Amino acid sequence: MTHIYNFSAGPAVLPKEVLAQAAAEMLDWHGSGMSVMEMSHRGPEFISIYQAAVRDLRELLAVPDNYKILFLQGGGLGENAIVPLNLVGRKAQPATVDFVHTGSWSGKSIKEAAKYATVNVAASSQAEGFCGVPPQSAWKLTPDAAYLHICTNETIDGVEYPFAPELAGDTPIVADMSSHILSRVIDVSQYGVIFGGAQKNIGPAGLTLVIVREDLLGAALPICPSAFDWSVVAEHESMYNTPPTYGIYIAGLVFQWLKRQGGVAAMEKRNIDKAALLYAALDADDFYQNRVAKAYRSRMTIPFFLRDESKNEAFLAGAKQRGLLQLKGHKSVGGMRASIYNAMPIEGVQALVDYLNEFAGR
Ligand code: PMP
Predict the structure, then answer these.
(1) Which atom in ligand 1 lies closest to the alpha carbon of residue 208?
(2) Where do you find CATH 3.90.1150.10 in the chain?
(3) What is the Cα–Cα distance from 134 to 130, expressed in whole angstroms?
(4) Whose CA is nearest to atom 10 of ligand 1?
(5) Is-contact 123 139, C-beta < 8 A?
(6) Active-site residue, 320 included
(7) Is 176 designated active site?
(8) Is pTM beyond 0.90 here?
(9) 263-359 belongs to which homologous superfamily?
(10) What is the CA(50)–ligand 1 centre distance, in A?
């Protein structure tokens, strides 16, 4: 049988080992006689799963003690509203929120935040077709902003921050890391809030991760739903309402898998190699094209175009025949996209590279 490699942007490939373990534990988790899906979130079995997931994630990302790790629902788009609902109250109203606009996802965040705050787009790469991150020296920041929002990996545009911004004042940085969290070493203390949907590098859709510095809690606007008020969620250890228990369980297995792989630093090394292999094939001649400036090219989500777009359907059909799935680009930009998250082995990238070369007649 053809080996299948899944390049979906999300929901996305998960480690086979994790899926096999979940299958083996599906009907009876550790002799409890229950599936994780059937357990009370307040029972000792699930509490132990939850605590291990939080502990392992804290270790993997070296999350400092003064940060809370929260498991919510609502996805990345939900956070676009939940973030302002929690943070604009830190300043006199109407508060201003700063954004750096580097692609589709930060664009969506800007639109949503405008419902709750005055929005200042401090910098944008839109005029250049979202092919990079404007240099921090060119950002026109608001001195007293409630926060600065950035999307550190633009999933559709394939633009990744190679740096963490450093701000002079005490404006917290909010980072949407949905599509590259746990793929590279970060210094959590440089951010006020990190959030992401789970369905790329963490686990199944339906689980949303928020890492928030404790001093930012407690400023939610009165209209903020209690289930999305981070201080309420933190106080209840992510169990103010019923959390997405199965998603947390799978995320926990992914965290254990990451630790067995050597942690985030080891993963980052592999991700650098995987991305280099793929970009080399895309850059070999002008048959394919990736339009992102080299310094800002994503290691995780790699859009590319065929020079002759009339070959798109043939390219996708041939890919499918070879077990290379879900390579079609996002509908808003067209072309192709290969998402090569942590769980994509280098063999999968090599299989794609072999096909790219074959299709280009090299
Ligand atoms: N932000 C980024 C960077 C994303 O890639 C996505 C989903 N692709 C979202 C936000 C939206 O996430 P969700 O669909 O979970 O709301």
Answers:
(1) 15
(2) 263-359
(3) 10
(4) 76
(5) yes
(6) no
(7) yes
(8) yes
(9) Aspartate Aminotransferase, domain 1 (3.90.1150.10)
(10) 23
